[in-house]
Amino acid sequence: MMNLPKLNYLTIDKILLEALREDIPIEDISTNAIISEESIGQVSLYAKEDGIIAGLNIFERIFKLLDFNTNITYYYKDGDKITKGKEIALIEGKVRTLLTGERVALNYLQRLSGIASYTRKMVESLNNKSIKIVDTRKTTPNMRILEKYATKVGGGYNHRNNLSDGILLKDNHIAAAGSIKNAVEKAKKYSSFINKIELEVENLEMVKEALEAKADIIMLDNMSIDNIERAVKLINNQAEIECSGNITLENIKDYSNLEIDYISTGAPTHSSKALDLSMKDLRVLK
User: CA-CA distance, 170 to 220, in Å (whole number)?
Assistant: First the structure.
C-alpha cells in the first residue's frame, strides 16, 4: 500500500460544513425532541458487505465538527479489507451528536469506500504492477479531492487534479488549433519547461503525428487492443503511453499484457456502488 496523502482540513472542512448545513439547516428535531443535551452514548459502525474501507478520517471529522469531544476507536484503517458483519469502529459522545451526524458521516464513508473497493478490484484484475491505474476528472462536483483520495486508498493513482495541474490536449483542442503539430507547438510556447505535454490520439496516423510533434505522453483513446499493440511498436519508448476510453472492471484484464504505462478510467468515480455500512447498537451510557 502506498503512502496516502494527508487531507487538508482547511479545504475539506468547507465541504463538510456545507453538507452538514444541507442536512441540518436549523436543528435535528427528531433527535432533539427525545434526547437530552447531556446524554452520552456509544454506537458501533458495522460492515454490511465485503470491501475496502476509505474515508474514516472524513467520517470522524463530521462528528468532530458537531462536537470536538466525540471519540472514535478504530479496529481497521483506510485501505484495509473489511468483511460483512465486522465491527469497524466504536463511536462515543453526546447521543444528539451521534444521531445528528450519522447520515452525513455514513454518506461520505460509503461513497469513498465504494470507490476504493472498485479501484482495488480493478488493480487486482489487471494484475500488472508496471501499469498504473489512474483516475480522471469525472468526479462528483465539489467532491474531487475526496474521491481522488479514495482512488489512492484503493491502490490507484491520481491523474491531474484540475485544469491548472497539467497539459492534456484532447480532440477538441486539436480541432481548435488546426492540427496536432500546432496544438503541441502552442502548448510548449505557452507553458513552463517543467510541464509535460500529453496528447490524446484516436488512430495510428495520429500516433505518428504525435511522435513528430514530440509529445511527452501519448494517450491512446478508445483504440482496439490490436491497434494499441501496433501503436506501442510505433512509439517504441519515445513517449509514455496511456490507454483510456470505456475501460471498466469488466474489460481491464484485456490490457494486462500490454507494454503501456498508464490506464486512465473514470469508472471508479462514476460507476461504483456505495459500500453498505451501518451504525447500529446505540447504547445510552448516562
Answer: 11
Please state whether 246 falls in left (phi above 0), alpha (psi between -120 and 50) or beta: left
What is the amino acid identity at position 45? L
Grid cell at residue 135? 483516475
What is the distance between the alpha carbons of residues 236 and 234, in angstroms, rounded to a whole number? 5
Rounded Cα distance, 214 and 209, in Å: 9
> Number of helices (H) and strands (E), helices first, in the chain?
10, 12
CA distance 171 to 222: 12
Predicted confidence at residue 1, as pLDDT, reads 47
Asked if 268 and 154 count as a contact pair (C-beta separation under 8 A), the reply is: yes
Q: Please list the residues that pair with 42 across neighbouring strands.
A: 92, 283
Report pTM.
Answer: 0.94
Domains for the chain: give ranges and CATH numbers.
9-123+273-284 (3.90.1170.20), 127-270 (3.20.20.70)
113 Cβ neighbours under 8 A, 6+ residues apart? 51, 52, 53, 54, 55, 150, 274, 275, 277
Q: For strand 40-47 and strand 277-284, is the pairing parallel, antiparallel, or unpaired?
A: antiparallel
Where residue 2 falls among pLDDT bands split at 50, 70, 90? low
pLDDT of res. 107:
98
| DSSP assigned state of 265 | -
**Closest among 224, 223, 177 to 197, alpha carbons compared:** 177
**Active-site residue list:** 103, 138, 170, 200, 221
**Exposed e or buried b for every residue in 17-53, given b needs 16+ CB within 10 A?**
eebbeeebeeebeebeeebeeebbbbbbbbbeeebbb
